[in-house]
Amino acid sequence: MLSRPPVDEKRAAMRVVIVGGGFGGLALARRLRRAPLEVVLLDRRNFHLFQPLLYQVATGGLSAASVCTPLRYVFRGAKNVHVWLAKAVGLDPRARRLQLADGEIAYDLLVVAAGSRPHFFGHSPWAQVALPLKTVEDAAAIRSRVLAAFEQAEREHDPEQLRALMTFAIVGGGPTGVELAGALAEVARYTLRREFRRIEPSLARILLLEMAARILPGMPPTLSARAERTLRRLGVEVLTNTQVVEVSPAGLRVRRGVLEEELACGNVLWAAGVEAVPFVRAVARATGAATDRWGRILVNPDLTVPGFPEIFVLGDAAATRDENGQLLPAVAPVAVQQGRYVSQLIRARLRGKPHPPFRYRDWGYLATVGRHEAVGTLFGWKLWGWPAWLLWALVHLAKIVGFANRLLVLLQWAWAYLTFGRTARVMVEWQPAPSSEGNS
Predict the structure, then answer these.
(1) Is 295 left (phi over 0), alpha (psi -120 to 50) or beta?
(2) How many Cβ atoms sit within 10 Å of the Cβ of residue 32?
(3) What is the set of active-site residues?
(4) What pLDDT is recorded for position 3?
(5) What CATH number belongs to 124-272?
């Protein structure tokens, strides 16, 4: 196996190594591209993924290329930023060396922005059945699974098997689950209309399961209620106060109150939460840092690891609190603000000046529920309907990295809005389920 060239230990500039090219790492690296520093941004992927629109890739509304921007393209004019395609596996905090899968690199400052992965709450076998939505590969798998279910249903004669194929369960009633449920309902009701001869796609059963008392629990109750009404109009069955007990190829076993019931379902999509990636746990072990139940590192108010002022943790890897002591959610705005804050803190250190602790400014957040329908908050104001949807679209367009990607997304949105069509309905590597007719 090839190893990386030896690290230049005679460098003149301070080296900042950033692990992760997600929202936090990207925001930090962009703010440091003119600083008198050597910045090394490393990621296992060569692109930045705009995760908020990943559900549209999963439902055929957008192509994967529309939500991915090559990191080298982003920093093509930043001579002090080096992009490495690498996987971080551990570190020696005393020697200030980061261990990679194929080498190592020394650092003066280390920023851990490695992100998160789907959380199955200790039930790892569920991952073999339920499809999460965290990566481009996940989105492609969901899209293939959904389209394949309709294709198989067209040839299925067994009533029970047909019902299972046409039933889709989404576990998790947060923004991702709500947006995925709404988009999937529109696919069944509008996009696939008149495309099949034996089945009626609009009769597909779409279940949204949430363990809490309402969906979108982070929003005001009135907005949660409006989102639920919109989903029900689209044909989504919203099941709150519902805990998943078991996931199997046959479907789900859920608990509602003291009663348990079986839900026959051939397609389970997972949007129930995330946890820190293994590298974050490796950092915690190496530094002796405490973690929360999701594996996130409990950081100081300035986002440093206790006892290691040269190591910063941000985004989904960090457990940070607001001024009221509440843990901040693992969402993109938090990561972006933390990335910007760390850039200011590093510049302040270079000048020998103090810098105040991190403080998150909550501007609000939005979730789209369906065609020209969204709910959300902005500066404490409640928004819903067409105005919220328009604001959601403008905000997401503005935050996509790269003009070409913004244009691609805008064109695909315009086409989908005018025609109800979804142009990215491509299936890759799917395996048909057993059929009552056997193989042809």
Answers:
(1) left
(2) 24
(3) 179
(4) 38
(5) 3.50.50.100
